[in-house]
Amino acid sequence: MLQWDMAMQQVWQFLVVLVRTAVILAALPLLGGQTVPRRIKIGLAAAIAVILTPVVTFTLPPNWLEPGHLVMALAAEILVGLVLGFAMRLVMAAVELAGNVMGFQVGFGFANVLDPISQVQTPVFGQLLTVLATLLYFQVDGHLLVLLALGSSFQVIPPFGAHLSGPLLPDVTGLIQGSYDTGMRLAFPVMAATLLVHLTMGVLGRLVPQMNILLTSFPITISVGLIVLGLGLPFLAVVFQQSVLGMETVLWELLQELGHG
Questions:
Q1: Number of separate helices (H) and strands (E) present in the chain
Q2: CA–CA separation, 121 vs 7, rounded Å?
C-alpha cells in the first residue's frame, strides 16, 4: 500500500510538472504554431517533464486532490507558464508588427499570404521577417533560453508556490510597450525611406502635373523598400538578437515576482 501511494504521488508530480512544461513550450515560435502536430508537442513536453520530475523535489500538500485545491494548483502552474510564455511570445510579436508596418508602407498592405505557423493572413513583409526571425531565434539559442527558464522556474517557484504580486501587472504592461517599441525600431529604416519617396513623388506631382504619380510611385516605393530592407538586415538582426538575449533578465525578474509575491 505504501509503494502504491508513493507511485501515485510520483504520477501526480509528473502531471504537475507536465502542465507547466506544456504551457511554456507553447511559447516557442515554431512549436507554438499549428504546423507542428499535437502528438509531437505533447511528446516533447512529456519527455522534458520526465527528465525534470526526478530533479524537482516538492511535497504535495494534504488534501490537495480535493476539487478546490486541485483547481488552484493547476491554475498556479498555468499562470507561471502563461506569464513566461507570453513574455517570450512578445519577441516574435515585435517582428510581426515590424513586418506589418513595412508591408503597409511599401504598398503590400493587401498582398497577404497564409502564415504556416499561425494560420492567419499576414503581409508579405511580415511573413519574410517572421521566417528570418525564427531562424535567428534558434541560431542565438532562444529555444535554450526557454528551457533554461523552465528549469529555473521550478527552483524559484516550486509547484503550488506561484503568487500574484503587485509589480507583476506593470511589468507585463512594460513588456508589451517594449515589444511595440522594438517593432517600430525594426520598421523605422523602411518607414523613413518610404516617407522620403512619398515626399519626393509629391513634389514631382506638383512640378510635373502630367506625370501619373499613382502608377509611378508604386514600383519606386516597392524597390526602395526592398533595397532598404536588404541593406538593413544586419541592423534588424542585431536588434532582434538583443531582444532575445535581454529576455533572460526579464524572465528572471518575472520568476522572482511570481515566486515571492
A1: 7, 2
A2: 48
